[in-house]
Amino acid sequence: MVTTRSSAHAQLFTSQRTAFEAVVIAPATDRDEVTNQRAAFRHLNCVTRRRNSNRVCDLSELTHCPREDGTVRLRERHSQHFEAGYAYHKCPNGKMAAEGQFFQLICSNKTPVKGKKQTPSKMGGDRFIPIRNSKQMDVASFLLTKENDPDQHSSAKAMSVNLNGYDLEDAKILHLGGKPLNAPEGYQNNLKVLYSQATTPASTKKTRYISTTPDKILDAPELRNDFYLNLIDWSSRNVLAVALHNGVYLWDANQGDVILLMKLEREEDYVCSVSWTKEGSYLAIGTSDCKIQLWDVENQKRLRSMASHTSRVSSLSWNDYILSSGSRSGLIHHHDVRTAQHHRFTLTAHSQEVCGLKWSPDGRYLASGGNDNLVCVWPRVSEGSAGSDNQPVRCWSEHQGAVKALAWCPWQPNILASGGGTSDRRIRIWNVNSGSCISSIDSQSQVSSLVFAPNYKELVSAHGYAHNNVVVWKYPSFTKTAELYGHSDRVLSVVLSPDNSSMATVAGDETIQIWKSFEEDPVKKKAMDRMVKPTTTGLHHSIR
Amino acid sequence: MTSTLQGITLKGSAELVAEFFSFGINSILYQRGIYPPESFSIVTHYDMSLQLTTDAKLKNYLTNVVSQLKEWLYECTVQRLVLVITCLETNEVLERWQFDVECDKLAKESSAPRQKSIKTIQDEIRSVIRQVTATVTFLPLLETPCAFDLLVYTDKDLVVPEKWEESGPQIISQSEEVRLRSFTTSIHKVNSMVAYKRTDSV
């Protein structure tokens, strides 16, 4: 039965201000009214949800509970079930509301507070907002219905453009209604990834693989297992020179063939050090009979034999035409190989064998390390200066063991790395300009050789007692990139190949192992090759 | 193609654009795997091979949308066409292909045909569709079964035809957007872009 009152009561108030529409119903007086109201809702695609039973509940039995987010939840009064709630919700696309969703109470309904049969008067008491000032109501309804102010309009417009992605005033969005079109049941696209990478394309970094086994192993019989000797060097023409007892062998890394360059006359003598010139055409050989021999490798001829030391020449280093040699006496001699009077200067600072000797890449400093645990840095002496003021620029005694491992950083000037022997085991980085030790790390084993690998900015250290390994450290963070355990006895020396992609290590187990640890990707390599300019010295014309 | 050698008219342009939409939507549905690839057949158009669906219901739906679009294009009341791909279970929007249409209203007034060769327009359309195919390489995989919906942005005062309803914009939160090529028939200009849900990857 439909009464006029009920239809008058059923105030359906909708607001366009939010995406949801709020529907507030009038309290029903009887079951019929509820049915009619529900019919009205269905017309608008609203659905009332009943909980648990066919119980009909009208608004008089509901209380409103405002929530923090501004919605209002209708709860059954006197209900033991706190969750029992009713919600009226219209979704934008007309679908049915889901149970338990809430609506925003936009404004009051026009329902009377009390009594079933009472006629609703004008706007006044409201179930949800019991006391309402009528003035406010007038103002409110005026505000709702009048045209927006211009400034309000623009801010509202900006907001709506942000929210909706387009200007609501200018466009509306339509789509074809009806049942959604889906793929047949159970279809799942099987587009699988064939190639993928974990990182986004913008940040590809090739992961580098360092092989834990050597690329080649060369046999080095009769190698002297002496910590203080420097028995291998790799020339810029890709020839590896190895001193085996009293002979020097050359291994051509391109072809793979081996030639015996020379052998010392006396059986009891042995070769103590070998060093290539920068162009790789001459080889300096220091011997145990205190002499330095200079050989022309192409013609396999000995050019000079220079005698100036009083004990064996255990370390050599070239700086253009100057050959520096360190001996067991603790003295360092500078030789000018172009002149007959080769011995130019003597540097005295060490009291024991000078086993480490390295000129910096720019030729300004000579670093020397000795069995007396000292690291000294000498300046380049110019021609004509008096021999007496050959004092070291720096002299560091922090190491606790013999310093044979010395390396200058090729990409950072004035950075020297030094490594201590068995009692020290530390690798120290020095700044020659400031004289300070930048960092010092414990490498757990006797450090016999250091070399900087520029391809990936790493420092390689060769170790003897106790691990007999080769460690590749990232510089300057000193994180271990790789630990290579290829040798079964202490590693004596490590040298880099001329293209910086491989290194050769020689150890007391009488093997030389070639490790391809620093291979670059070909694109970068090509770019670098174009940048490298060959530098030559005029040396080959002036050796007499 | 109704456009002849005399140039492009409004009607012809509308047809061209509607045709592009039809092929473009089919391509996207095929490439993104919304429908099984077996339900597509290859046709040649724009001098390239394109995939068209053979599913009757889908074909019917698309025909309805495209024909309505053609009408709106002719009246210059359509602003945008959006293809929304949503996850079937969660109704979350995963991808959003947006084609903005700018219509030159002057063409409505004068009925003189514009000068632009069909071939140029076809080339442009071809490059757009090729780009759509190429996007498969960087768009994230759609792991879950998906549904799609077509939204049309029209002028506010348009009369909503039967069967069409209003809808929300279905924007993706935290999206990556990629602008694709555009093409123009000298009366209608179509810009394309795709927005997809950013996947957290390191």
From TrEMBL, chain A:
SMART domains in the cross-refs: WD40
Signal sequence range: none
CDC20/Fizzy WD40 domain sequence ranges: 218-515
Going by the UniProt record, its keywords in alphabetical order are: Repeat, WD repeat
Task: Identify one Gene Ontology CC term for this UniProt entry.
Answer: anaphase-promoting complex
Question: InterPro entries, alphabetically?
Answer: Cdc20/Fizzy, WD40/YVTN_repeat-like_dom_sf, WD40_CDC20-Fz, WD40_repeat_CS, WD40_repeat_dom_sf, WD40_rpt
In its UniProt record, a GO molecular function of this protein is: anaphase-promoting complex binding
Pfam families reported in the protein's UniProt record: WD40_CDC20-Fz
The answer to whether the entry has keyword Repeat is: yes
Family statement drawn from the similarity comment of this UniProt entry: Belongs to the WD repeat CDC20/Fizzy family.
* Name of the protein: CDC20/Fizzy WD40 domain-containing protein
Species the sequence originates in: Knipowitschia caucasica (Caucasian dwarf goby)
Automatic annotation (TrEMBL), chain B:
The answer to whether the entry has keyword Nucleotide-binding is no
Q: Which UniProt keywords apply?
A: Cell cycle, Cell division, Mitosis, Nucleus
Q: Name one GO cellular component term.
A: mitotic spindle assembly checkpoint MAD1-MAD2 complex
Q: Which SUPFAM superfamilies match?
A: The spindle assembly checkpoint protein mad2
One Pfam family name from the record?
HORMA
**A GO BP annotation:** cell division
Superkingdom assignment: Eukaryota
Annotated HORMA domain ranges read 11-194
List the subcellular locations. Answer: Nucleus
Provide the primary localization.
nucleus
Listed InterPro entries: HORMA_dom, HORMA_dom_sf, Mad2-like
**Family per record:** Belongs to the MAD2 family.
User: What name goes with this protein?
Assistant: Mitotic spindle assembly checkpoint protein MAD2A
Write down the species: Knipowitschia caucasica (Caucasian dwarf goby)
For this protein's source organism, the top of the classification is:
Eukaryota, Metazoa, Chordata, Craniata, Vertebrata
